[in-house]
């Protein structure tokens, strides 16, 4: 039986777009038909690599093509809102990369456009789609950890300001907090059952800059890397309080005098705890004894390729069924309130009520 394939356009053909192209290519019910990038050469390269017929440099033209059912938005953060809203109004389903956008005001406008259009919008909180995250969610939903009251998220790079648009606050909206912090904050919040955040207290630091002086240690640099341009924080930390009394402590950096990079996603309940990162592990009591329980799974930490496959598969399902995605626009809005609240708290030096 022939399948009616969903026709897909990808807007933004930079680094992360490959994960989207690869994942769509593996799905029997999807067909990549269009690619758009401001940089035509980049769009042409992806079109050649993935056998895509239509190439655009203006996303409005891509959206005007009635054949296209859904788009992935993989552009700079400052364009997520305008492209998402235009796509929804053009009747397209939208998978938008994290963060949803740059401001709460933009987030609210996107949410309104989702409501008005009745189309699907899925936020690319890819860590939610990892097999281990879903396994932990199942344990939590079944009460294995009891009431979760504390979580801790870290994503520390000791040398890793990618430069380019990532280091330009106008295009990115911020540094490590909005770029990599968003992933670990979101994962904790999702696994905690998405309690309502009531206040945030944060600090940001611009102490080390992007460290162009460092030799002998290489790191990822954006295509338009320019050591002279850096307007984002190099480190942030925050305490997020929730209505149910739970709290989340987070620290993130693009650069820090740390011995090594560090990633941690840890949740603590009154019946047990779990470390999702750096290595999946449950901690509980058995026979009045504390036991560390290591689930036997294929991958002990995030499997990026599988997580993206799951994310895209879920998006296609939601496009077909109209079901609400497991990372809906509402969660993107709440995450923008948390992130922007942290930046506001850091700027004003006081706790912010959300
Ligand atoms: N989910 C993840 O793990 C993950 C990882 C990396 C990046 N991201 C997100 O993906 C997005 C892109 O990041 P990247 O690392 O691929 O950046 P990138 O710089 O490699 O690519 C971005 C591309 O978007 C293009 N672009 C910008 N504005 C455009 C517009 N208006 N129309 C068409 N093209 C436009 C640029 O020319 C560039 O080629 C960001 O929002 C980032 O936060 C997500």
UniProtKB/TrEMBL annotation:
Q: Name one Pfam family in it.
A: GFO_IDH_MocA_C
Domain of life where this protein originates: Bacteria
Stretches assigned to the Gfo/Idh/MocA-like oxidoreductase N-terminal domain:
6-125
Q: Which residues form the Gfo/Idh/MocA-like oxidoreductase C-terminal domain?
A: 137-354
Regarding protein family, the annotation reads: Belongs to the Gfo/Idh/MocA family.
Q: What protein name applies here?
A: Oxidoreductase
């Amino acid at each position: 039986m022939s399948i009616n394939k969903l026709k897909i356009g990808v807007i933004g053909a930079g680094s992360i777009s490959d994960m989207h192209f690869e994942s769509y290519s593996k799905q029997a019910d999807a067909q990549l038909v269009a690619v758009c990038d401001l940089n035509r050469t980049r769009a042409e390269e992806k079109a050649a690599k993935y056998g895509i017929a239509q190439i655009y440099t203006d996303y409005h033209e891509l959206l005007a093509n009635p054949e296209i059912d859904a788009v992935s938005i993989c552009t700079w953060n400052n364009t997520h809102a305008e492209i998402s809203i235009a796509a929804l109004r053009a009747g397209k389903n939208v998978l938008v990369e994290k963060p949803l956008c740059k401001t709460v005001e933009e987030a609210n406008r996107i949410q309104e456009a989702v409501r008005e259009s009745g189309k699907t919008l899925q936020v690319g909180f890819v860590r939610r789609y990892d097999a281990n995250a879903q396994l932990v969610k199942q344990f939590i939903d079944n009460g294995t950890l009891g009431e979760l009251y504390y979580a801790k998220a870290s994503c520390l790079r000791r040398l890793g300001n990618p430069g380019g648009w990532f280091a330009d606050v106008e295009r990115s909206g911020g540094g490590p907090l909005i770029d990599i912090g968003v992933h670990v904050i979101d994962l904790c919040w999702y696994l905690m059952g998405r309690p309502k955040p009531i206040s945030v207290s944060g600090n940001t630091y611009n102490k080390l800059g992007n460290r162009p002086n460092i030799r002998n240690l290489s790191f990822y640099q954006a295509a338009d890397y320019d050591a002279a341009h850096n307007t984002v924080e190099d480190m942030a930390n925050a305490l997020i309080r929730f209505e149910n009394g739970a709290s989340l402590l987070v620290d993130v950096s693009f650069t820090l005098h740390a011995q090594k990079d560090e990633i941690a996603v840890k949740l603590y309940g009154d019946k047990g705890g779990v470390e999702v990162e750096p290595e999946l592990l449950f901690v509980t009591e058995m026979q009045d004894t504390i036991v560390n329980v290591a689930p036997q799974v294929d991958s002990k930490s995030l499997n990026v390729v599988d997580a993206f496959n799951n994310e895209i598969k879920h998006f296609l399902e939601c496009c077909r069924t109209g079901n609400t995605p497991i990372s809906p626009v509402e969660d993107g809005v709440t995450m923008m309130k948390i992130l922007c609240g942290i930046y506001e708290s850091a700027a004003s030096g006081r706790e912010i009520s959300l």
